[in-house]
Design brief:
Elements: H1 8-14, H2 19-33, H3 41-48, H4 53-80, H5 83-103, H6 107-120, H7 124-135, H8 141-169, H9 171-192, H10 207-212, H11 214-230, H12 232-235, H13 237-240, H14 246-272, H15 276-292, H16 300-317, H17 320-328, H18 334-362, H19 364-394
């Protein structure tokens, strides 16, 4: 059978990547299509297991504690034992833990399972980012990370819709589907992606070397500031919209998913040709602006408009952070650098609801104006780091 070359337009969007990257992309999409349990944990614990709100909150915090360990540990494993074994191991461990949780009935058993799941469910991220950095040339990395971002959102959007429907038939379905897709992803990586970790003679240093990289630490700090803005969408925005009903929040967030799925692929190649730091800083600023505009929102339509604004900023950030981390990291420490970057998201997920709800209690105007100001701070900080990041990128001679 003759394979016809893709059109020039399509090739500019998706061409130029090795087969291993597409295996990683396909596995990521399949895995996210099955990510149906996490968004419904709170409902599952209260409705299916009959836990009180207080106990549910405690169990969810145990999951958060596990996620704090996940990224640094997985980054170390990716550098020490390999990208492929870390990603596959994390996926298979996630599958086993999902099934154990689905059949657990005691509070102690569920809490233990949630902690383990917090550790393993996102362990694939540092390994995945290190794989992309190993496989893809520096100039193509923003486009590659952008495609992975798009695949994640496409899969998750479908999972949210089907997960809500399947939950009505029984939550155990969600655990099984999630476990199966994790297994498929893990097996795909093990069978079709070669190990890309540098040779043993090139592997020197550890997290101490990462923490000595002041540029990386500053970049992670700017990202943490950004996460505290962006994650308001999942922690305080639904609270601010509660008087409008849950469907209003659902429709507003649907705007986010639709824009990413349809707009991000059109802009990915164009953005990849721009300076990564400048694009990232612009994205930070627009996300901050979108949340600041929420001060003036009172109807579902107005909230949806603000979501559209900060989603455009989110699209600008897609792929840029991963490309910058890959630029800053020596090849033998890519897992650890990616783990530290992922750790900033875990910390953000821990402190954002604590700070955000306190500011919302003072007043919505205080919360949204503070979020906007923090977005500008993150943008200015990223612009300040841009010259040093460009100098570092000039030293990169190989993927």
């Amino acid at each position: 059978m003759t394979v016809t070359a893709p059109p020039t337009f399509l090739k500019s969007k998706i061409g130029g990547f090795p087969r291993a990257f597409w295996v990683l992309f396909g596995g990521t999409v399949v895995n996210r299509l099955g990510t149906m349990v996490e968004p419904f944990f709170g409902i599952y614990l209260t409705q299916a297991r009959g836990m009180s709100l207080a106990v549910t909150g405690l169990v969810l915090s145990v999951f958060g504690a596990g996620s704090l360990l996940s990224q640094p540990l997985a980054g170390w494993l990716a550098d020490r034992f390999g990208r492929r074994v870390t990603l596959t191991g994390g996926m298979l461990a996630s599958a086993a833990t999902m099934l154990a949780l689905g059949y657990s009935t005691s509070v102690q058993g569920i809490a233990a399972g949630m902690f383990v799941l917090g550790v393993v469910v996102d362990a694939y991220r540092p390994a995945s980012q290190a794989l992309v950095a190993d496989l893809v040339s520096p100039q193509d990395r923003p486009r590659a990370f952008g495609l992975l971002f798009w695949g994640l959102n496409l899969g998750f959007s479908v999972a949210m819709i089907t997960g809500g429907w399947l939950a009505e038939a029984g939550f155990l379905w969600l655990f099984w589907i999630n476990a199966v897709t994790c297994t498929i992803f893990g097996v795909l990586v093990w069978r079709a992606i070669p190990e890309t970790r540098p040779a043993a003679s090139q592997r020197q240093g550890g997290f101490r070397e990462v923490f000595r990289d002041r540029l990386m630490i500053a970049f992670v700090a700017m990202n943490l500031a950004y996460t505290c803005v962006y994650l308001q969408a999942f922690y305080t925005l639904p609270l601010a919209m509660k008087d409008l009903g849950t469907s209003a929040y659902g429709w507003a967030m649907a705007v986010n998913g639709l824009l990413i799925v349809f707009v991000q692929p059109l802009t990915n190649t164009w953005l990849a040709r721009r300076d990564n730091s400048n694009v990232l800083a612009t994205g930070f600023a627009i996300v901050g602006l979108g949340f600041a505009l929420t001060v003036f929102a009172s109807t579902a339509f107005e909230f949806s408009l603000t979501v559209a604004v900060w989603t455009l900023g989110e699209i600008l950030t897609a792929g840029m952070s991963g490309a910058i981390v890959a630029t800053l990291a020596p090849a033998h420490l890519r897992g650890r650098y990616s783990g530290l970057y992922g750790f900033s998201w875990s910390v953000g997920a821990l402190i954002t609801p604590l700070i955000g709800t306190q500011l919302l209690a003072v007043g919505p105007a205080v919360l949204w104006s503070s979020a906007g100001a923090l977005g500008i701070v993150a943008a200015l900080g990223q612009l300040a780091l841009a010259p040093a990041i460009r100098r570092r990128s000039q030293l990169v001679t190989a993927p």
